[in-house]
Amino acid sequence: MTDSELLQYTRDTGDFSRMLSSIPYADFIGLECDRFGDDLIFRLPKKEQNLGNPILPAIHGGVIGGFMELSAAIYLMMSQETPRMPRIVDFSLDYLRAGLNRETYAECHLTRQGNRVANVMVTAWQKSRAQPIATARAHFLIEG
Amino acid sequence: MNDTIRRNRVTRFIGTLNQAQELRLSVEDAREGQLVLCLPYSDQIIGNPETGVIHGGAITTLMDTASGSVILCALDEFELCPTLDLRVDYMRPAEPRKPVFARAETYKITRNIIFTRCEAFQENGETIANCVGTFMRIGQEATPKSYRDLITGGEE
């Protein structure tokens, strides 16, 4: 499958497995994605290799960042015409609570879409959406 | 405290972080308030299969780890400091099949907060990404003594 066929297949079926298995980093951290109607929920299942702080224990802050960053890029790709992976410009991350050793979720919102740059907000949570463990903003360059 | 002690502390510390081990991060250089870590290239962390460029998330983890660990090079006593926020600016994609280094420093330490900055670069010296972070000091006592002893080793 070409990239655009893969993107079309993912859009048509809501089956993200083929797209995700084409991105090694997604597999490295274990990222998964589910579609509910038009909404996408990204999931990071519990995984020992993703831990940082061994005392709590808690997920490595960088993994939480990487999970949110990749979620934002896939979300953007799904809402765009181009099958290319968008290029990240900057990423600003607030850690709000410790990300404990359990399944983590993320959802994204397109805050602003310009001709060249898109701004995406990401929220990550574990037990309750009302208690996010981290929020992030990212700018992406859209290559036409 | 000398640079050997600093290097040993950081090496033991990142040895306890599963994800840092998974990425095979290593200490390149440690001195007072400064630290260089190395992220070797691996096919596992590619973000864009077309180009072989590693994903920004791996760079974020490298920089978060370097920024969090440089605190060990700045404080005499080991304190585990959680990250409050991290801002990463990506200058250019990392060249495939080459390691990425992160040079971090603490540039302001207060009673409650530690401010860090970090630069990710490759052998040719060009900057891949810049990062600033803030870390909160929750005090030595917040970390179990057994863990503190593990990091400081039998040196003192």
TrEMBL record, chain A:
Q: Record's Pfam families? A: 4HBT
Tell me the superkingdom of the source. Bacteria
Which CDD domains does this entry report, sorted A to Z?
A: PaaI_thioesterase
Where does the signal sequence lie? none
Transmembrane region(s): 55-78
Q: Report which residue ranges the record marks as coiled coil.
A: none
- Where the record annotates domain Thioesterase, the positions are 59-131
GTP-binding as UniProt keyword:
no
Q: Which UniProt keywords apply?
A: Membrane, Transmembrane, Transmembrane helix
What is the protein named? Answer: PaaI family thioesterase
From TrEMBL, chain B:
Q: CDD domains attached here?
A: PaaI_thioesterase (cd03443)
Can the keyword Signal be found in this entry's annotation? no
Kindly give the Gene3D superfamilies that the UniProt entry links to this protein: Hotdog Thioesterase (3.10.129.10)
InterPro entries, per the entry = HotDog_dom_sf (IPR029069), PAAI_dom (IPR003736), Thioestr_dom (IPR006683)
Name the domain of life this protein comes from: Bacteria
Pfam families noted in UniProt: 4HBT
Protein keywords: Hydrolase
Ranges for domain Thioesterase come to 52-128
PANTHER family tied to this protein: 1,4-DIHYDROXY-2-NAPHTHOYL-COA THIOESTERASE 1, BLR7284 PROTEIN
Show the NCBIfam families listed in the entry: unchar_dom_1 (TIGR00369)
Q: What is the protein named?
A: PaaI family thioesterase
- The organism is Marinobacter salinisoli
